[in-house]
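Re: coenzyme A structure - here you go.
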Amino acid sequence: VLRPATRDDLPRLREVVARANDAPYDLGAVLEEKCFGRGYFGEPRARVWDDGGALRGVIVTCGRFIRVIAVDRAFRRRGIGSELLASANGNIVFAEPANYLTPGIAEADIGTVRFFRKKGFIATRWTYNMHVPLGALPPASAPRADDASRPRVLQFIEREFGRIWHYEATHARSLVYVEHEGEVAGFAAAEANNRGLGWFGPTGVARALRGRGFGRQLLLASLADLRAMGFARAVIPWTDALDFYRKSCGAEVAGRFVTMQLE
Ligand SMILES: CC(C)(COP(=O)(O)OP(=O)(O)OC[C@H]1O[C@@H](n2cnc3c(N)ncnc32)[C@H](O)[C@@H]1OP(=O)(O)O)[C@@H](O)C(=O)NCCC(=O)NCCS
């Protein structure tokens, strides 16, 4: 039967996703954030497929977004995914701004792409994740937002980049910024979404001040923070700025992701 998930399900859910996750990141490590963490679009709804106490699959939606859907590999092609999907009203697959495991379906995950195609979803957008080893990066520093500067930095983010990035940056474990003539000119956040997996971003420099090296400085300072937290590698998610990241820190494309949507 399909029923709402509770936090008591987390240990068993972790076992299910170990057998169900085909995305290239450890869903189990961020399971609580994905199943129960608020999103920009409100509280999520998590449901499980419960087979007499044994969990076989899970779906999490937030607003119009399907944040997570996963079925135990041993129980696929039996209609469980279909029932999970039918119980939800999400019509955009993954790529939920500010709370996503992956920015769309990993293109290598052909089964999931086919499932959604069968359900009438079509591909609408493509984007990339990049990876960068943190072992040997050039040194860089930038001021860290503290109690005094944080409100100004967050205000800057909202004004220049909108409310979703503001929301995401609010959760960041690391938030650095740069100033130009006494005003905040740019920022970089890390360990905001997918906390525990070493994810970078969001980041941005004021339009009029681009091309002066601020972006690179912020990136390197933020990656240094991730390294200091103990990460050996950072993920630079949901980006098309491939050349910028290649040049600035030696990051390489790790995968392409497709957003599928029901018209
Ligand atoms: C996508 C997914 C949820 C589908 O679950 P499922 O229970 O197997 O889906 P269903 O049995 O309801 O499939 C319905 C139809 O979709 C299509 N389909 C599903 N999987 C398919 C595949 N691998 N190849 C081709 N078609 C497929 C088929 O048409 C199927 O009908 P059929 O079995 O009669 O041919 C499952 O493949 C999955 O868990 N993928 C991994 C997702 C993941 O990594 N999640 C973690 C990140 S959020």
